Amino acid sequence: METYNRTSDDFILIGLFSPSRIGLFLFMFIVLIFLMALFGNLSMILLIFLDTHLHTPMYFLLSQLSFIDLNYISTIVPKMASNFLFGNKSISFIGCGIQSFFFLTLAVAEALLLTSMAYDRYVAICFPLHYPIRISKRVCVLMITGSWIMGAINSCAHTTYAFHIPYCRSRAINHFFCDVPAMLTLACIDTWVYEYTVFVSTTLFLVLPFIVIACSYGRVLFAVYHMNSAEGKKKAYSTCSTHLTVVTFYYAPFVYTYLHPRSFRSPTEDKALAVFYTILTPMLNPLIYSLRNKEVMEALRRVTQRLCSVKM
């Protein structure tokens, strides 16, 4: 690996792949995924906005998930692509702080939003008569606002600490974005106290929400099993399996990375796992929710027909 020494306050991002033929192929693949994520999430937001049949709490939350994913991947990939194309791997101290802040805010906001979506399905299936009261528009707005606020508070705490500790001579971050745990390997002081706070933060904002989601869907599956309607069972299973697929893709690599002791992880492993929750998940979410959701496909057909009739 190349050795980078400190010549300014800028950091150096080692990147995801080296400038080679294989690296160029992987770069083009990542850019394709990025474009698919932009198109998919923008399409989902517009579809939910244009089709009145999707103006329900579930799809309001889904539009927010698409909005978060849109910003999430845009926080990481453009800078990574720029570094690869122009060969300039540096990122300013302030730029690194901004990227780290938005990454952490969006990561926690998405984790909490997925929990809200699980609660929405739990109430819809287990307490259908109470659904309009428990999941009103006001409740949806509060859940979304709470997700963003908690994400921002958590991000402020971690970013403030990471950018107020002394760093040694090398400023080379062995990652493709300003990930705080990767930055701490460059610190000149012992960071065990902070690593403990990362453990606590991960438990609060990732592990506990995942447990809540698992319990919610356990209760949902139990209720579905006792349903008399075969059509109702099929729809409930489809919705739950879709959401659980999204949750697994997002939470599993995140929790493994942030709870696994640093001494047992390698930078290559961290970067490979980070690809799942920063690049692949924002691209897969709109695909999973559209291809496996009959209501979304029907809404797409209605909007397409409406647009075609307007043109004619």
From TrEMBL:
<keyword id="KW-0716">Sensory transduction</keyword>
<feature type="domain" description="G-protein coupled receptors family 1 profile">
    <location>
        <begin position="40"/>
        <end position="289"/>
    </location>
</feature>
<keyword id="KW-0812">Transmembrane</keyword>
<keyword id="KW-1133">Transmembrane helix</keyword>
<dbReference type="GO" id="GO:0004984">
    <property type="term" value="F:olfactory receptor activity"/>
</dbReference>
<feature type="transmembrane region" description="Helical">
    <location>
        <begin position="139"/>
        <end position="164"/>
    </location>
</feature>
<comment type="function">
    <text>Putative odorant or sperm cell receptor.</text>
</comment>
<keyword id="KW-0297">G-protein coupled receptor</keyword>
<keyword id="KW-0807">Transducer</keyword>
<keyword id="KW-0675">Receptor</keyword>
<feature type="transmembrane region" description="Helical">
    <location>
        <begin position="236"/>
        <end position="252"/>
    </location>
</feature>
<dbReference type="GO" id="GO:0004930">
    <property type="term" value="F:G protein-coupled receptor activity"/>
</dbReference>
<keyword id="KW-0552">Olfaction</keyword>
<keyword id="KW-1003">Cell membrane</keyword>
<feature type="transmembrane region" description="Helical">
    <location>
        <begin position="93"/>
        <end position="119"/>
    </location>
</feature>
<feature type="transmembrane region" description="Helical">
    <location>
        <begin position="200"/>
        <end position="224"/>
    </location>
</feature>
<keyword id="KW-0472">Membrane</keyword>
<dbReference type="InterPro" id="IPR000725">
    <property type="entry name" value="Olfact_rcpt"/>
</dbReference>
<dbReference type="InterPro" id="IPR000276">
    <property type="entry name" value="GPCR_Rhodpsn"/>
</dbReference>
<dbReference type="GO" id="GO:0005886">
    <property type="term" value="C:plasma membrane"/>
</dbReference>
<protein>
    <recommendedName>
        <fullName>Olfactory receptor</fullName>
    </recommendedName>
</protein>
<feature type="transmembrane region" description="Helical">
    <location>
        <begin position="24"/>
        <end position="50"/>
    </location>
</feature>
<feature type="transmembrane region" description="Helical">
    <location>
        <begin position="56"/>
        <end position="73"/>
    </location>
</feature>
<comment type="similarity">
    <text>Belongs to the G-protein coupled receptor 1 family.</text>
</comment>
<dbReference type="InterPro" id="IPR017452">
    <property type="entry name" value="GPCR_Rhodpsn_7TM"/>
</dbReference>
<feature type="transmembrane region" description="Helical">
    <location>
        <begin position="272"/>
        <end position="291"/>
    </location>
</feature>
<dbReference type="Pfam" id="PF13853">
    <property type="entry name" value="7tm_4"/>
</dbReference>
